[in-house]
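We were asked to recover a plausible sequence for a given structure. The inputs and outputs are reproduced exactly as logged, with field labels preserved.

PROBLEM: sequence recovery
POSITIONS: 464
GIVEN STRUCTURE:
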């Protein structure tokens, strides 16, 4: 994000991952100068958006929720076409998107501060949260409606203007979401900034608060740039998530959860499971059950409601998955459809040597390594041994083991007897180590991030 780039505009295309000959959108990226101008126009509109008051902001966000619900079928179909999201997941994402806007529509009415007693004498002490100004949001392609929404809605609720810079692969989805949001908001309060690194650099250099979701390397660069400018920043980055299965777990149920977390949406989620840690006697039964579950995962056209694992987002992503498993011992591999599309088979590998990239880097595909552990302590050490710390799933019928895992697992989210995937939008979202930098996203935490606290001292002009 900090490399020198040309200020000139460029053009790019968004294509259908299931049919690369299908061009969804061709668009011109405006360049760095235009990006900075976009931020300035948003800054000019922000004061009016704040002064509109709680009722106006609440009504606007509620109207966005209603409009998303009304357009649900259209939006889901667009996510299927542009980013290859399986239809069932796309429908669920749109439902969650509407719920996010409705949840934050109540936030403008919340208290924004407190009244405090003076240490001595007359007067009034107040603390009050105020918006930063222009929120620059840089979002990925894998949740093209939900992630822009869970960043935008809280930022708008507390009175910021928003400039949204989506991933190029999801530009059509972002464009359609922008049309819906702009119908409910005053001009300039929400603006779309298409483009790639050039526009992202410019946005981080000009906005007043920045939220990023994407790769670790780019996220760390965003944090450096924002920190150098002295503006608040949050960065949600990669995951290298483990599923720990104890011998007393319901093995069939755990295998079903883990297979879905490996192969769902072709593993293109930061919360996807990429390491499966089988503890003691769980290894044999889990090896068989999980292998069978992955071999039978429905892979194919994302427009088919039965599809679980669709295509990878582009050819580079597909090739990255192939490179990651090349030469490894394959325990189970699903089938891929013939014909066009960037598909990769759901794959479980074993006997992965220490230091292999699959155990140290986020591959972002439907691939996982099966790893043995002697006991829970050993499993925790394996889980914690990677650079990332986003989410861990722990499968057991033992409450003591579950509680022990909660205390020792070095991840921001721990899910017991549930897949590693799945997000509750009203709870804080984020991880440890290289997975997250800055404040948490979602829930009440997001409202705190998009506002700054000011302290007011009101002393009487005259004393008796």
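RECOVERED SEQUENCE:
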């Amino acid at each position: 994000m900090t490399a020198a780039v040309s200020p000139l505009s460029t053009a790019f295309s968004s294509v259908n991952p299931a049919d690369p000959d299908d061009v969804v959108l061709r668009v011109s990226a405006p360049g760095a100068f235009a990006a900075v101008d976009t931020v300035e126009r948003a800054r000019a509109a922000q004061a009016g958006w704040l002064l509109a008051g709680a009722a106006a902001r609440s009504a606007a966000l509620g109207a966005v929720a209603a409009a998303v619900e009304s357009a649900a079928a259209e939006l889901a179909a667009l996510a299927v076409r542009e980013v290859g999201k399986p239809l069932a997941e796309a429908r669920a994402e749109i439902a969650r998107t509407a719920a996010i806007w409705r949840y934050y529509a109540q936030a403008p009415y919340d208290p924004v501060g407190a009244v405090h007693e003076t240490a001595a004498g007359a007067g009034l002490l107040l603390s009050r949260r105020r918006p930063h100004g222009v929120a620059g949001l840089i979002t990925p392609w894998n949740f093209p409606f939900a992630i822009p929404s869970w960043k935008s809605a809280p930022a708008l609720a507390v009175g910021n203007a928003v400039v949204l810079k989506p991933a190029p692969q999801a530009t059509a989805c972002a464009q359609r979401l922008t049309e819906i949001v702009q119908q409910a908001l005053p001009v300039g309060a929400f603006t779309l900034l298409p483009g790639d690194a050039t526009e992202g650099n410019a946005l981080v250099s000009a906005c007043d608060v920045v939220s990023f979701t994407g790769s670790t390397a780019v996220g760390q660069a965003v944090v450096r740039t924002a920190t150098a400018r002295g503006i608040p920043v949050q960065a949600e980055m990669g995951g290298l998530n483990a599923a720990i299965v104890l011998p007393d777990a319901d093995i069939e149920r755990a295998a079903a959860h883990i297979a879905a977390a490996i192969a769902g949406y072709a593993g293109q989620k930061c919360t996807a499971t990429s390491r499966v840690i089988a503890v003691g006697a769980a290894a044999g039964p889990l090896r068989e059950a999980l292998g069978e579950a992955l071999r039978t995962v429905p892979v194919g056209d994302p427009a088919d409601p039965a599809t679980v694992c669709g295509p990878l987002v582009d050819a580079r992503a597909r090739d990255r998955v192939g490179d990651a498993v090349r030469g490894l011992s394959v325990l189970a591999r699903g089938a891929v459809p013939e014909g066009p599309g960037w598909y990769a088979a759901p794959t479980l590998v074993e006997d992965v040597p220490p230091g292999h990239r699959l155990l140290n880097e986020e591959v972002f595909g439907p691939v996982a390594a099966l790893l043995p552990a002697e006991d829970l302590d050993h499993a925790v050490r394996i889980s914690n041994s990677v650079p990332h710390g986003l989410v861990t799933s722990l499968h057991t019928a033992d409450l003591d083991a579950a509680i022990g895992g909660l205390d020792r697992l070095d991840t921001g989210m721990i899910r017991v007897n549930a897949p590693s995937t799945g997000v509750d939008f009203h709870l804080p979202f984020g991880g440890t180590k290289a997975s997250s930098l800055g404040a948490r996203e979602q829930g009440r935490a997001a409202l705190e991030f998009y506002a700054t606290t000011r302290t007011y001292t009101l002393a009487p002009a005259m004393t008796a």
